[in-house]
Structure formats: C-alpha cells, structure tokens
Input
Amino acid sequence: MKSFGHWLTSPWRRSTVAVAAGALPVLAFPAPSLWWCAYVALVPWIVLIRSAPTGKRAAYDGWCGGFGFMLAMHHWLLPNLHVFTFVIAALLGALWAPWGRLVRRCLAGTPSRGRIAVALLVLPSGWLAVELVRSWQGLGGPWGVLGASQWQVEPALRLASVGGVWLLSLLVVAVNVAVAVLVTVRASRVPAVAGLVATAAVTSAAWVWSPRPDVDGQARIAVVQPGVVAGPDRRFAQEERLTRELVGQDVDLIVWGESSVGYDLGARPDLARRIAALSRATGADILVNVDARRSDKPGIYKSSILVGPDGLTGDRYDKMRLVPFGEYIPARSLLGWATSVGEAAGEDRRKGSEQVVMDAGNGLRFGPMVCFETAFPDMTRHLTEDGADVLIGQSATSTFQHSWAPEQHASLAALRAAETGRPMVHATLTGVSAVYGASGQRIGPWLGTSASTSEVYEVPLADGVTPYVRFGDWTVQAALLILGVWGVAEGVRTVRFRRPSPEPRVPPARTVRESPARPGR
Output
C-alpha cells in the first residue's frame, strides 16, 4: 500500500488513476448495465481524492475523474466529433473540481464522526449540484445522470416517482461515501453504517408509502421502425410498407421515429396524402417527425406532426431543446471550427417555443418529445401536468448504431415513466425502440438495432399524480439548501479561526504618591 502511495506521488500517474477511477461508473449504464456497480464505482475515486496532499491537488483529481466519467459516458461520439470529444469532456469534467476539494475537506486525514455525518449529506449534495449544472441544455443536457443507471431496478423506480432521478443520484452517492469510509476510516464506521441503514430505510419507506399509479384502461399503440435505410424517399417507402402491415390490428395511434419524413409536408402535399391514406386504412392517427426546411417560415425544424384520415390535423410540436454540435453549434463564431474536425451541424436548426399535448381521438392524449429531450425530467413532468395520458419520444440514433448510445437512450424512458406515473413510448428509426408502463416496467419487446418492423403494444393507461409531479425538483432544492447551510457554517468557522484573540486585560499600574507632611513633624 505504501509503495502504491509512493507511486502516486507522480502527478501524471495520479492523474491517470483519477481518469480511470472516474470512468468506472459507466459500467452501471447500458450496454453493460451492471446497475449494482453504481453503488461502489465512486469509491476508488473518493479514496484517491481524500489522500490528496493539498486542496489544489484534490481539485485536479476531481477534474481528472470528471474528464474520465464524461469521456467514458460519451465515448460513442468519438467517430463523429473526433478530438472535440476530448475538449467537451475536459470542459465538463472541470465541474467536478470543486467536488474534489469538497471530498478532501470532509474526509481527509482521520475525520471525526461528526465530519463523516456531514460528508454523508454534503458530498451527495455537491454531486447533485454538478449534475444540475451540466444538465443545462447548452452543456449537453442530463445524459448520464448517475441515478439513471438504476432504470431497471424496481425499488429505484419507485424512488424516482418520489424525487425523480435526482433522488436516485443522491442516494447512490451517499452509499458510495459510506462504503469509502468503511474501507478507509475504521475509527468512523458507526456513522458510515448509519448512513447505509438510513438509505435502506428511505428506500423501504418509499416502497411502502409512495402512491402507485391507478391503471385505468389501455391503448394499443404501434411503433414503426424502418431500420437503416439510405435516403428519405426509400425510408418513407419502407415506413409506408410497415404501416400497411398494421391494417386490421385495431390500433389507437401509430408512431414513426425522429426524422421519419425528410420533407416539409406543406411543400409536399403528395406525402401528406399518402400518410392520410395510411391513417384511413389503419383507422388510427399517425405521428410522424419531419426534419426539413419549413415552407411557411425560415429555417430547419424538427417537428412532431399528427396526421389523420383527412390529412394534417394541425397538431404540431417543434423541438425545443436541440443537441449541442449535433443540431446547432453554441457560439458558432467561436466554435464553428468544430465542423472541420467532425460531423457537427453545418447549419443551426430552429427551436420551438412551447410543449404541446395532442389528441389522438377516443380521449387519448399524448405528449411528444424529440430525441434527447427525453433525458430532461422537467419536460415529461410538464406534459403530465398538462394532461398527457401517454408520453412519446421520437428518436434516431442511427449515427451511433453500433455503440452503447441506442440502449442508453431507450433506458431513459423507464425513468421518465416512473417519475410521472405515465406510460412512455420510445420510438426510433433504427432502434432501440421500447415501451414502458406507468411504473417504469418494460412492456413488450425491445426492437433492437437490427430490426426493421412494426410492433403493436398494449399500453396500460394510468391516473393519479406522483409526488415528483406534484412537488417537482425538491431533491435538488434540498441539496442546494444543504450546501448553502454548510457553506455558511464553514464561513463562520473560518472567521472564528482567523480572528485574533483579544489582548488580555492588564490592570493599570498604580503610582505611589508621597503623603503630605504631617503638622508638627
């Protein structure tokens, strides 16, 4: 152990270990999906940071680990963004530098039981603050939030209905901190064990007391996945053929994937008529997604458009949150060079202004989202508040067909369904397409990246309001409050420590005066 510690005295070796330690949590996400790994994957990183000789070195360890995590989580971008993938990972990884200093502040040396108890609250809150900042759409959105690794764990999905994916992240980090203390600080095992017991108690309480969705009826929703087809015309023809296979199957709604139509339907009424004919033949409205330059206003939009038996219904949702570099380049005047080193957007797409809930008939209301918008829990929460019975994500990960991206994307819908208590349909062009029930459980088969087919899903509909929909991101607010209180307490403590002690009071010296001469002397 001492020899390994001596080996780590080299800054470059230590940084390499930090990068590798930061990358470990990615094993908990699809495709490996070793969900249990998330509860110990941060331990090597935490142990390394707490051994940092200085606060500055701890910040470097945090940065390097954040770089490793971001690079591993988004490694499938390398064939498209090339060297710019490393730039993005380095920029986002810097968000963990303050967290590194925080870890050392709480756990360095031989921390007291009080410091351990504080660490079990402050360190998960600090991690959540990092996830909150990087979840901003301009920084890439909440892809790879640690709590999302628990998408297939039923107790975790129940917790998501209470506090969203944020609550899962908070508890997963708390378990990692407790395990790190058990491994390295034997004298402070009591608060660490107490933290593990508290986490188990919270999970059990949520399992028993959190409300379950009330299932009320069902809808037959079909997903059309054409597979890898070159060119918008051939893709449309394949989607048309697969949709005709649904004739006579009594479906309530048919969903095509993102960019399923490559032409503006206002400029191509012939395509609109062909889709309307499919709607008449199948007896169901068809939700398509148009990726094209609009004929009624300038710019390229990605739009979910509902087509009925009589043609365009007028329901349209324009994508609001665009993928940085994939669909637009932030600060193009400064970062436009990204187009020369990778497949970044040559022209910025335009944003929509508001979310939309559509009516598919027979009382079925659904809320569409496009591509990585399904990573944002606030979007599905707002659609649920607006009366959506079903959440729908239209996606296309064909650019990353042979990577972990399609499965990672499909898994997010399980969290969104559990958070809102509403079933969610994740429909893609080339896989993975998936459907989840109101508790986040999988319904029917996944359509993998090798499938070119149409599939009908019996989707149970649900009523009721989950605590997450009712109270929103209360977990994040609590974490920020914890950090604020801790920061104030640390500030007061620092001021007291630095304040010079008052000078001891010295009584004034008395001077001896000669008494006046007595008379007669």
Summary: The mean pLDDT is 90. The two ends are 92 Å apart (CA to CA). The first helix runs from residue 2 to 7. The chain has 18 helices and twelve strands.
